[in-house]
């Protein structure tokens, strides 16, 4: 699986040749990074809006193995883009983009979509428990041991819709539950390195009915990062980009226009 992910990232980078980029609009690149228990299809409703408005969009597969290693793979693509980049992360993907952009010169803005924005030394697990409200622990299946050590975490399919995507069409939420990608348990307890949001403008959007990351935690992280704009979507679940793609796309475009 890891070789497949690496091959996918390499393919994405290969598409970004000078000839290919010459055809791209003169706007910032939008790079989308999904979170745990999801995949790049979670951006499917946002991508057409951005493309219609002239943005070159790349939705990368996040390996979900560890903050530093995942960030290195995302950065391997971002660093090859010849132009400014808006880096967007959902959930655990926020930890990844915070690290991936830390040493980058071409990332102009960070957008956190129901996402973690950890300080150096913090973990996703600790931030989840910093405020009451998360019911994720009770929705997880027993951890799955990995052959080389460590464990994978999944959300139980029967609990996935209510936990993860309560405001999404039930048929779509079911498909999301079946296609979810697991995260290594160690990734949620890995201490984050120095984050990029301390020097790069950040933007936040999340739902006030998020059951994975407590809205109070998301509000705390947005305030701490001095978010340029924070959008709270009433009634939205953890996958606000699926249920409210217009609001998410608009905030990404505002981030792309920032100076």
Automatic annotation (TrEMBL):
Signal peptide interval: 1-22
Keyword field: Hydrolase, Signal
KW Signal (keyword) present: yes
Residues annotated as domain AB hydrolase-1: 30-250
Keyword Manganese: no
InterPro entries, sorted: AB_hydrolase_1 (IPR000073), AB_hydrolase_fold (IPR029058), Sec-Metab_Biosynth_Hydrolase (IPR052897)
Pfam families attached to this UniProt entry: Abhydrolase_6
An annotated Gene Ontology molecular function: hydrolase activity
UniProt-recorded name of the protein: Alpha/beta hydrolase
Protein source organism: Sphingomonas citri
Organism classification: Bacteria, Pseudomonadati, Pseudomonadota, Alphaproteobacteria, Sphingomonadales
């Amino acid at each position: 699986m890891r070789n497949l992910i690496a091959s996918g990232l390499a393919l994405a980078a290969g598409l970004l040749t000078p000839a290919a980029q010459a055809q791209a609009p003169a706007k910032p690149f939008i790079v989308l990074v999904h979170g745990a228990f999801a995949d790049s299809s979670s951006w499917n409703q946002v991508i057409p809006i951005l493309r219609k408005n002239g943005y070159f969009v790349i939705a990368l597969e996040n390996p979900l193995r560890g903050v530093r290693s995942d960030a290195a793979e995302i950065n391997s693509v971002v660093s090859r883009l010849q132009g400014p980049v808006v880096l967007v992360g959902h959930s655990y993907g926020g930890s990844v983009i915070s690290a991936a952009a830390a040493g980058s010169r071409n990332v102009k803005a960070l957008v956190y979509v129901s996402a973690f924005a950890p300080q150096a030394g913090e973990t996703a697990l600790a931030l989840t428990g910093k405020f009451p409200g998360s019911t994720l622990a009770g929705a997880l299946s027993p951890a799955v041991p990995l052959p080389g050590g460590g464990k994978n975490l999944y959300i139980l399919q029967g609990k996935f819709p209510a936990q993860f995507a309560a405001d999404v069409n039930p048929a779509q939420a079911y498909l999301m539950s079946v296609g979810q990608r697991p995260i290594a348990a160690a990734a949620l307890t890995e201490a984050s390195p120095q984050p990029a949001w301390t020097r790069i403008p950040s933007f936040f959007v999340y739902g006030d009915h998020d059951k994975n990351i407590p809205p109070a935690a998301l509000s705390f992280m947005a305030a701490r990062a001095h978010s340029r704009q924070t959008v709270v979507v009433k009634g939205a679940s953890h996958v606000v980009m699926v249920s409210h793609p217009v609001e998410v796309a608009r905030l990404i475009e505002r981030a792309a226009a920032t100076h």
